[in-house]
Specification:
about 400 residues, mainly alpha, about 60% helix, about 0% strand, globular
C-alpha cells in the first residue's frame, strides 16, 4: 500500500498541493458546513508536471557527467545545468510566499529539510567511504554532493520574511549574488552557491498565478520551443568552446575562476538573465493537464536524494569506461537510463520503503510552542489600582516683611 504524501516544506521537490495557496495563506471565509468549505482543494497538475520533467533533467545530467569528453554530452550538460536547478528554486520561492516562523511551519522546516539533510549527509559520506574507498569523514557544515541543496533551501526559507520587507528585493538579491562572486567564500554551508542562486528564490517569492498563466498560452509555447532550440545551439556552438563548466555550479568565486571582478560580474548577470529566460521557456513546454506522470511529480524529492547512490556506484565501479558509451548514441542511452531511474524512484513502492528518511513522522520530537510567562495578575493589578495620592504641598508663606 502506498503512503499518501504529506505536504512538505521542501517545495521544489515536494510541493504543497498545487492549485492552492501555500500553507498559511488567508483563505476566503466560508460558512462551516457549506460544500465549498468541506470540499478538498485539488492539486494543479502543471506544477507536478514541471517538477517531474525537471527531475528527469537533473538525473539525466548527473548520469552523463562522466561522458563529457564527447562534445555533444558536454554541451548538453552545460545547457541543462544552466537552468535545471533554477527551475526548482523558482517554484520553491513561489510556494514559500507565506512562510512565517509559526510553530507548525518551523516544524516542517526541521522535519522536511533538516532531518533529511542529516540523514543523507551521513549516508552519502559513509557510502563514499565504504564503496568509493575514500577517507571516512562526515561534516554537517560541508555538504557532500547533492545535499548542498537542502541546506541552501533551509537558509532561503529562513530568509523569506526579510525579503518580503525589502523595497527592491530582486535587485538586492542580484547585488548579493554579484558581490558573493567577488571572493571565494568559505566552503561551509556552500555559501557561494547559496548566495549566488538566491535571486531565483526571491524571484519565485514575488511571482503571481497570472505570471504562470501567461506561460500557458500557445504563443508562449512557440516562443519557448524557439528559445530552447536556440539556447542549445548557442551552447553547442559558442558557450561549449569558451565557457568553463564551473560557472554553472555557482560554487566558485572570481579568483578561483581566474577572472577579474568586472568580467565575473558581467558573466554572472548574463547567467542570471539566461537562466531566467530558459526557466520561462521550459515552463511553457510543461503540460497543463493531468498526465500519466503527474502523480510522480509529488515525489521528486525521492528521486533527487536517492539517484546519487546509483550514479556514484557507476563511477566507483568503472561502468562509464566502455568506449561505446563515449559516443553520441551512448550518451543518449545513458541519459535515457537516467530518466528511467528518476521515474522509478518517484513511484509509490520507493516512497513506501524510504518515507522514514524523507518524510519522517516526528510528532514525538516536538512540544507545544513555549512562550515566556508573564505576570498577568500583576499587570491587571497595576492597571486597575487607583493612583497613589500625591503629597500635598503647602503654599509658600514667605514673610513679606
Amino acid at each position: 500500500m502506498s503512503r499518501t504524501p504529506q505536504p512538505s516544506a521542501f517545495e521544489p521537490l515536494q510541493l504543497e498541493p498545487a492549485g492552492q495557496e501555500p500553507a498559511g495563506s488567508a483563505a476566503p471565509p466560508e460558512a462551516a458546513g457549506t460544500p465549498s468549505a468541506s470540499r478538498p482543494r485539488k492539486r494543479d497538475p502543471f506544477f507536478d508536471n514541471a517538477k517531474f520533467l525537471a527531475i528527469l533533467l537533473v538525473v539525466a545530467g548527473h548520469s552523463i557527467e562522466n561522458l563529457r569528453d564527447v562534445r555533444f554530452a558536454h554541451a548538453a550538460y552545460l545547457f541543462v545545468y544552466t537552468f535545471h536547478m533554477p527551475v526548482f528554486i523558482v517554484i520553491t520561492g513561489y510556494f514559500s510566499r507565506n512562510f512565517t516562523f509559526s510553530g507548525g511551519k518551523a516544524r516542517k522546516l526541521i522535519i522536511n529539510l533538516g532531518v533529511p539533510y542529516i540523514v543523507f549527509e551521513t549516508a552519502y559520506s559513509t557510502y563514499h567511504w565504504a564503496v568509493g574507498h575514500a577517507k571516512f569523514e562526515i561534516s554537517l557544515l560541508d555538504p557532500y554532493y547533492l545535499t548542498w541543496f537542502l541546506i541552501a533551501l533551509f537558509m532561503w526559507r529562513l530568509s523569506t520574511p526579510v525579503w518580503q520587507q525589502i523595497r527592491w528585493p530582486i535587485g538586492v538579491a542580484a547585488v548579493i549574488c554579484v558581490l558573493s562572486g567577488m571572493d571565494q567564500l568559505p566552503g561551509e554551508l556552500e555559501m557561494n552557491r547559496t548566495l549566488g542562486l538566491v535571486p531565483f528564490y526571491v524571484l519565485g517569492l514575488f511571482l503571481k498565478p497570472e505570471h504562470f498563466e501567461l506561460l500557458k498560452r500557445r504563443s508562449a509555447r512557440v516562443l519557448g520551443v524557439l528559445t530552447i532550440v536556440g539556447g542549445f545551439a548557442f551552447t553547442y556552438l559558442v558557450a561549449d568552446r569558451h565557457m568553463a563548466t564551473e560557472w554553472v555550479y555557482w560554487r566558485s568565486g572570481n579568483p578561483t575562476l581566474h577572472v577579474d571582478n568586472l568580467t565575473g560580474t558581467a558573466i554572472r548577470l548574463a547567467m542570471l538573465a539566461a537562466a531566467t529566460v530558459l526557466v520561462a521557456a521550459f515552463l511553457t513546454l510543461v503540460p497543463r493537464r493531468h498526465t500519466w506522470f503527474t502523480s510522480l511529480g509529488s515525489a521528486t524529492l525521492y528521486a533527487y536524494l536517492l539517484h546519487g547512490f546509483a550514479t556514484k556506484l557507476a563511477d566507483y565501479l568503472g561502468w562509464y569506461d566502455p568506449h561505446i558509451l563515449h559516443t553520441i548514441p551512448g550518451v543518449l542511452a545513458v541519459a535515457a537510463g537516467g530518466a528511467i531511474l528518476a521515474t522509478v524512484l518517484c513511484t509509490p513502492p520507493v516512497r513506501w520503503a524510504m518515507h522514514w528518511a524523507l518524510e519522517p513522522r516526528m510528532a514525538w520530537a516536538f512540544t507545544a510552542l513555549r512562550r515566556p510567562k508573564t505576570n498577568s495578575y500583576a499587570g491587571r493589578r497595576r492597571a486597575t489600582s487607583p493612583p497613589k495620592p500625591q503629597p500635598r504641598t503647602l503654599p509658600d508663606h514667605t514673610d513679606a516683611s
